[in-house]
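Quick start: read one record
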Amino acid sequence: MPVYQMQRLLLSSHSKDRRIYSESLHQRSLAMSSSSSSSSSAAQTDAETLRLKRINSSKLYLHVIPSKVPIIYSSYYDISFLGIEKLHPFDSSKWGRICRFLISEGYLDKNSIVEPLEATTDDLLVVHTEAYLNSLKNSVNVAMITEVPPIAILPNCLVQTKVLYPLRRQVGGTILAAKLAKDRGWAFNVGGGFHHCCSGRGGGFCAFADISLCIHFAFVRLNISRVMIVDLDAHQGNGHEMDFADDGRVYILDMYNHEIYPFDMTARSYIKQKVEVAVSLWLLTNEVSLLLARSLADLIFPYKNRLGLQLMST
């Protein structure tokens, strides 16, 4: 056989081998991609199944007897330990003072108050990552979240019982409040409202995402389909906003002073109705009422016929 023909055959053979090898790599890549996608989808399904199991097996939705009023509080809410409550502008004993005032003025009978359970680790894992909850076993991390530096040098067992346990009780109260609100038409948790905490991050004295937890429980256990968060704290909320980013079921109205903490522009972009102010919030009562009415109309309108509501336009 002439040399040039042999060279042509060899080149043809090499080209064919390269093509087969390339096709094999492509098929292997597609198979790996498909396998990765399937694994990811399966992992998401498993995670959602576990979330539902945790919600449905939770003990936080207590049966509350009719003689109780839907006001939720526990003496365990208050944080008072070695004076650390005085080292932060956040008043960590205000919850007890509120209830004592209501009782002393005759507005509330202490025996009619509903006392919640503590949120367990399984309850918290409905929203929080294991990594985040494990980070709270380090007192330094808790000190940064609460913004109380001396906590960093305390044994974590003390931090758990004196700081985090009261907050977990308040989480239980917030979650229970949704059930009572549906049962009774209204409910009030004296504590909670930790709007700076999301699934994997805490801050601003907020160690647990009770708002996000409350909503996820309500979606599953109460068959709630849409929720509106009205956040009137002076600080912008940046926890629930991250947890429900682009979630059409949750409408957020947040009124805050944009010149103070937390300056979280990413979270801010997820607010459906934001009101940025730099003056005392009490001066804006009329504006709040107007915005709230409009936002409620947007939230309820798709369900107006089913709810039998008549909405007044302003």
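Strands lie at 71-72, 188-189, 227-231, 250-257, 273-277.
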